[in-house]
Amino acid sequence: MPEVPQRVIVERALPTPPSVRGSTSLYLTEAGRQGIAAERKMLFVGTEPAAEHVAAALEVPPGSPVVARRKMFWAEGVPVRIATSFFRPDVAEGTRLADEGFVLPTLQAAIEELGHTFARADETLTARPPTPYEADLLGVAGEWVVQILRVSTSTARIPVHALETVCAASRHVFRIGQAAGNDRF
């Protein structure tokens, strides 16, 4: 496991402001606003069996094939996040959502080009121990991670995108705000 050379804290806004959500890269935009040198790399694009929580989110049977797009993110050279987009096969197969590389200009635009209109998104935040794979990639053996599962549903009530972001908990601050910008706590 790589040694983490320094302590890096990245802010993650919940909910994500629309201007950031619609940018080419949510992470690169957030990090740039914080003055952090950020990098990202596509790790995997292909079909894999749906884990139970992903299957529930996409309304498919557990273990059934889903299209996955997994990316890794670094801040100042330190691993901080793994993000995986999951799609039902009837939404992504045979489209550019299943192609290698980053989808430009945005994943959301590509989904809309397929005829899906977004109606809502729900985010579930969970703190948990990392899987061995996550612990190795993030360099967080013995630490916990924070998992954010965002499920976007179309106006036709089809869950068209499940985004699972796994963050090294010790390297993130989650800034909570109201979508309308009227923060009152």
TrEMBL record:
Tell me which Gene3D superfamilies the record gives: Chorismate lyase-like
Q: Does the keyword DNA-binding apply?
A: yes
Q: Where is the UbiC transcription regulator-associated domain?
A: 33-173
- Give one Pfam family: UTRA
- The protein's superkingdom reads Bacteria
Q: Name one GO biological process term.
A: negative regulation of DNA-templated transcription
Q: Which InterPro entries match?
A: Bact_HTH_transcr_reg, Chorismate_lyase_/UTRA_dom_sf, UTRA
Listed GO MF terms: DNA binding
Q: Does the keyword Cell membrane apply?
A: no
Keyword list (alphabetical) reads:
DNA-binding
Q: What is this protein called?
A: DNA-binding GntR family transcriptional regulator
Task: Supply the source organism's classification.
Answer: Bacteria, Bacillati, Actinomycetota, Actinomycetes, Streptosporangiales
